[in-house]
Design a protein that fits this description.
heterotrimer, A mainly alpha, B mainly alpha, C mainly alpha, B: two-stranded antiparallel ribbon, 6 helices, C: 3 domains
Chain lengths: 131, 132, 763
């Protein structure tokens, strides 16, 4: 079962990378979200899959009654999900800013590559000190 | 958004979602749930409110500034680590007060900090987007 | 420079906060004075706190004679410089920052001299480097100040790296990092194979900091600092750090032929070079900077010796120099402050206008020239005695000392006579004396030069001898007297004064000759520095142009290609042994979910419209959440579902404001080729990831951590949900870090949204 999931993760990775490489930033974000899912699944797989009870301790015992799923990767993934979410938000806002500044989201367009006037602090310095 | 159905449904659902968020938050220590899930749930509720009724409504509902909420969440979470120092234990070690009825500990404060930080972060972006 | 009209002189404006901050150096000075009698009696105070014991890095401090001498000089100069600067910097927009830097710098310098741990000393050493950068470049609006600050930082910073290398070499050879213990292994260190390397590293560190030829050029340029800073850097701190290092390491590394010959040669060259160059410039501050070079050279020269006599000479001259140099710098600052110029050609006759400053300068210059009854005379006597007592090339040392001193005498005469005597130029008619804050420092230190000159015995017993004993094992007593009788040193003193007078008389001709000779030098270290820097920056720019060409796709392709080629080439040959054919045993619903997720992903990849892609993403997220649920992870399933919902909301909110997607394949072959290339690249990366995970799951799993969490979750942390307990209790520090990231991302995002369009950065 792990191998099947590994195959799924690998395929997800390929798809995510393909989107990210496309050079268009909206696709990049979609690829980024896919990649986040793939990475979470990767951690999950590495912690082994088990078709058993969740890592909870019953109302009576002090330790889990039977075999439970591996709790450690779950904790890691939980934080990874939320961080991934925050990063996605940030990326989306970055996209929004980029579009507002350059009027394009295609990284191959010349207006994307040209330095935008508002962001280049170096040119500010150069203007101040012509020397 | 002007959809009547969404507006009506939102009015009904927001209360439920927020109550559910509190529930998820409180049960987190023993059952699935916790600060992260609760914050995301509350964030969804407020997003719905912001979309249907506008950002002002959200601002009125939460009363404090979202950035302040996020920062106080961070402070609360970091502060939850301090009591351990007085007991000579490493920073953020859980300290518990146990009575016969219930037991409470610093992890609860920490989780509240997580809740506030995540909710504050979501809300600050949401409101910034809606108001721009 | 703040040139004030004379009428404001009646109300001496002064930076109050700065003035009160002189309590810090004063308090430290007082504390040192309390310890003084016992330290002079041979006691050693130590204090130690553990910092990083595994690195042998401890907050170990030690107060012995040598650190006491340095500490007294640093705090006393710091005290007067602070008082002085409170007027000098009054009205400067950044004077608050100035005093913070100044005191931080003083503290770092004290750290160097009190540290008993080599690594701790290195940290303070680097702190002085960074702070001196800030101080030299204090007038950061001037391009010249920035340039000079950078030069000082690069030169002394590079030297600092050598020092670190030396320290690490000592450590790697298995010696302790504690300075006071290091002396015990002297013989082991000096016969160690690494000794020459260690010596070179420490020497380069000391040479860069103390401005020895060929690393001297940053020091005159550092004159772009405000004058109080120059006084502090030159008299007591920064440049003396290298001298201190040599003194402190003398019992460990010193006394070998290598040590003696190198130091005598380097010191001698620097002394002569500095003394000759001091005749050249017309800027008073630059002249003083070159005399500092000379002094540092002479100090290094004497530290090359290993007799008590030559070390006493070094220590005595250190004090002499600290006193007169601080006084002179402050006085020159006063001239500058009152007249607006430091140019010798524009100055003259100030004696009538600034009488007390004149007296202070007279005291300092006479000490510098070594007139009898002044402390400098004592210093010069012992210097000649020390030079004659050198074990290596005593004649060379004596010759250098003699010529350097003669030149110094001439320079002292120039500094005293030109600005203060003679007719008063018309443009200086309205010059008046400085406020008391700017007179007290030079006057007091000029006075000390006379007091110490009259009672040298007391000074040698209570200050110099304890300092020398701290870094020399022999307890040979050398007392300084006002008059040693008619002997060779006295004779040499007379020769010095006479030849100094001759040089002063011929100064114009000499100046011209020096200028012509300097121009003829075809290779100079400042030139090498400049061309090296230009080339370095050029190379950096060229490399940046290639690596950072601005194309996101190329960056990403390089990263992916590296992953595929490096990981793939190492891993894939082994993968075949480990990776088995996927065997389907588990719940079949999971297989269905995998297929569902892949289908949804395919929708995202091939989508032509945003809505389809968003829908596909939702499908992937939901499918992944269900996978988590199936395999016993309700917590993350819940979180994943909630995050999916919120992502959906935000993606829609933002994408509404963005243009529609462009088709992935534009008509035209280059685009088709690129898509094919991207597909191959990402397929390769996917293959590597797949085989890697398969390899990982082929290994046995260590559930030790999980078992710990399972057994302690309820018993120690009172929680039945193990995942949540890990998050908020066992690994809460990680969670704290994580929510910090979230809040930071949100904060940055909010400011990106709110920032007005097309507007420049706020000034």
């Amino acid at each position: 079962m792990e191998h099947l999931l590994a195959l799924t993760v690998g395929t997800l990775f390929s798809g995510a990378l393909f989107l990210m490489l496309s050079g268009e930033l909206v696709r990049f974000v979609f690829g980024f979200v896919l990649m986040g899912n793939a990475v979470n699944l990767l951690i999950f797989t590495a912690g082994r899959l088990s078709f058993v009870a969740p890592p909870l301790i019953g109302k009576t015992g002090t330790v889990p009654a039977g075999p439970v799923a591996n709790a450690l990767p779950q904790a890691l993934i939980l934080t990874a999900i939320v961080i991934g979410f925050a990063m996605t938000l940030f990326l989306l806002i970055l996209l929004y800013r980029t579009y507002a500044q350059t009027r394009t989201l295609n990284t191959r367009r010349t207006e994307f590559l040209s330095e935008s006037a508002g962001d280049d602090t170096d040119s500010d310095i150069r203007k101040k000190n012509p020397s | 958004m002007k959809s009547v159905i969404l507006k009506t449904a939102t009015r009904l659902m927001i209360g439920l979602m927020l109550i559910f968020a509190v529930y998820v938050f409180l049960r987190g220590h023993h059952e699935p749930g916790g600060g992260f899930s609760a914050a995301l749930l509350a964030g969804t509720a407020f997003s719905l409110l912001a979309i249907t009724k506008g950002a002002d409504h959200v601002r009125k509902a939460i009363r404090i500034r979202p950035s302040f909420m996020a920062l106080s969440g961070l402070a609360l979470a970091a502060g939850a680590g301090l009591p351990a120092l007085f007991f000579g234990k490493p920073f953020l070690t859980g300290i518990w007060w146990q009575t016969e009825l219930f037991s409470a500990g610093t992890p609860l404060i920490f989780d509240s900090g997580v809740f506030l930080a995540v909710l504050g972060a979501i809300l600050s972006i949401l409101l910034a987007l809606e108001e721009n | 420079m703040l040139l004030k009209p004379p009428e404001t002189e009646a109300v001496p404006d002064c930076c109050r906060g700065g003035l009160y901050s002189c309590l810090l150096p004063f308090g430290l000075f007082g504390l040192l004075c309390l310890a003084w009698p016992r330290v002079a009696g041979g006691a050693v105070f130590t204090a130690q706190w553990a910092w990083v014991p595994s690195l042998d890095l401890n907050l170990a401090f030690r107060l012995d004679g040598l650190s006491l001498l340095f500490g007294l000089i640093i705090t006393m100069t710091g005290f007067f410089v602070t008082i002085y600067a409170s007027s000098y910097m009054a009205g400067h927009p950044h004077n608050g920052r100035f005093f913070v830097f100044l005191h931080a710098f003083m503290t770092a310098m004290l750290g160097i001299v009190f540290a008993d741990n080599l690594l701790l000393m290195f940290i303070c050493w680097e702190a002085t480097t960074v702070l001196s950068f800030l101080l030299i470049g204090f007038d950061h609006e001037k391009a010249e100040a920035r340039e000079n600050a950078r030069q000082a930082l690069l030169v002394t910073g590079a030297g600092g790296l050598f020092l670190l290398m030396g320290i690490l070499l000592v450590k790697s050879a298995g010696f302790p990092m504690t300075l006071s213990l290091l002396g015990d292994s002297r013989d082991l260190i000096q016969t160690h194979a690494l000794y020459p390397a260690v010596f070179i590293c420490f020497l380069v560190g000391a040479m860069t900091k103390s401005g020895q030829v060929p690393f001297h050029f940053w020091l005159p340029n550092a004159m772009s600092a405000p004058t109080p800073i120059s006084a502090f850097l030159h008299a007591a701190t920064m440049v003396k750090a290298g001298i201190y290092l040599l003194m402190r390491l003398h019992p460990v590394l010193g006394g070998t032929t290598l040590w003696m010959s190198t130091l005598v040669l380097v010191g001698g060259t620097t002394a002569l070079w500095g003394a000759v160059q001091a005749l050249g410039p017309c800027d008073l501050k630059r002249i003083l900077a070159y005399t500092t070079l000379m002094a540092l050279g002479v100090l290094t020269l004497f530290l090359g010796g290993r007799t008590v006599m030559s070390l006493t000479a070094a220590t005595t001259f250190l004090m002499v120099h600290a006193l007169y140099k601080a006084a002179l710098f402050l006085a020159v600052g006063s001239i500058d402050h009152q007249t607006g110029t430091r140019d010798l050609n524009l100055l003259g006759g100030l004696m009538t206008r600034m009488p007390l400053t004149t007296l202070a300068v007279a005291g300092a210059t006479l000490s510098m020239a070594g007139f009898p009854l002044f402390f400098g005379f004592i210093g010069k006597e012992i210097m000649y005695a020390g030079a004659l007592a050198e074990e290596i090339w005593p004649l060379f040392a004596t010759g250098i000392t003699l010529s350097a001193n003669a030149l110094m005498t001439a320079v002292a005469a120039i500094i005293l006579i030109t600005p203060f005597f003679g007719p008063l130029p018309a443009h200086l008619k309205h010059t008046w004396e400085t406020p008391w804050t700017m007179r007290i420092g030079p006057a007091f230190m000029g006075l000390l030069g006379i007091v110490f000159g009259i009672m040298p015995e007391w000074v040698s017993k209570h200050l110099i001898q304890p300092a020398v004993f701290a870094f020399h094992p022999d307890r040979e007593e050398i007392r300084l007297f006002l008059f040693h009788g008619i002997n060779l040193p006295l004779l040499l003193s007379v020769v010095t004064l006479t030849s100094g007078a001759v040089i002063y008389w011929q100064k114009t001709r000499l100046r011209r000759g020096i200028g012509a000779a300097t121009e003829k030098l075809w290779v100079t270290t400042p030139g090498l520095y400049q061309s090296g820097l230009t080339r370095f920056l050029g190379t950096a720019a060229a490399v940046t142009r290639i690596l950072q060409n601005g194309s996101l796709s190329i960056y990403l392709s390089v990263i992916v290609l590296t992953l595929v080629l490096l990981t793939g080439s190492v891993w894939l040959p082994h993968a075949a042994d480990i990776v088995t054919v996927p065997a389907v045993t588990g719940p079949y619903i999971a297989v269905g979910l995998f297929v569902f997720v892949l289908g949804a992903a395919a929708v995202v990849v091939t989508a032509r419209h945003r809505l389809a892609a968003i829908g596909g993403l939702g499908g992937v997220g939901g499918g992944v959440a269900l996978i988590f649920l199936v395999f016993g992870a309700p917590d993350i399933a819940l979180t994943q579902l909630l995050v999916e919902t919120l992502t959906l909301i935000f993606v829609s909110l933002i994408l509404l404001r963005l243009p529609p997607m462009e088709p992935i394949i534009n008509p035209g072959t280059p685009s088709r080729m690129r898509t094919l290339r991207n597909a191959i690249l990402s397929a390769g990366a996917g293959l590597v990831v797949f085989t890697l995970i398969s390899g990982v799951v082929g290994h046995p799993l260590d559930r030790g951590q999980t078992t710990f969490f399972e057994t302690h979750s309820y018993l120690s942390a009172h929680g039945r949900n193990i995942v949540n307990v890990i998050l908020v209790d066992f690994r809460s520090l990680d969670t704290l870090g994580e929510i910090c990231v979230i809040v930071l991302a949100a904060w940055a995002g909010v400011h990106l949204i709110r920032r007005p369009f097309g507007q420049k950065r706020a000034p």
